[in-house]
Amino acid sequence: MIARTTSYRSSIVGILAGNLAAIAILAFFAVWYSISPGSFHYHCQEDHVVECLTAVFFLLASVGIAIAAWRHPSIRANKLRVVFVLCWVLILFIFAGEEMSWLQRQLGLETPQSIANINKQNEINLHNVKWVDEYFGGKYRWLSLLVLTSGVLLPLLGRVRPIRRVFNRAGLPVVPVHYVMFFLGGYLFGKMVHTEYTNDAAEIREFAFALGYLLFAAHASIIPNSMMQALESSNDNDVTPVNIELGDIS
Length: 250
What we know:
The chain is an all-alpha fold. It contains 13 helices and no strands. The longest helix has 34 residues, at 2-35.
């Protein structure tokens, strides 16, 4: 009983710490913009620090999830789990590439005419392709939909026991609730902070998303069982929450 109580308290502390960290980071950006909008805009432009860090975070998250899956034999032994993990790895890798237009400017690559004809910004990427933007709302709407589902909805649903059982059977990796505010807060930042240049708020939103996924991947990489730890549990009466506990790292 004492062990369960300690675990529960550790869970609450971890959840508060993770989400307060997200709020603090987003508040920092909001204060930065209010104090020095010019400096804020400069660092949010293409190929500057915010965008570069976002791309790196997405890439590291992709690699981290792959490493975590490799270190966890039960994932490799289950085809459905492998599919879920590969989807995560691929999606995050694509996000990283799209963020920097696949290093087109860094490598000095010319945009092929066939791509330039259909891309609104004459870049080598998918999210600025005209029909993608017209019919699917571009990368921001779909990124937000994916993020709000994977980073907010699924973690919260995973706290409900019957739904948790479904996740358990499917072997679905779920972002810990400790990091929900990186996703929800990032989305709200773009809605609440009205920057002079619209894209600046979008860059901060993506930065928060990428950092949230990186923390999820880091957790899973450091603790081999953590990505599927809750999914391995067979005791639905255990008070231990379904997601990874920050206290497990210490």
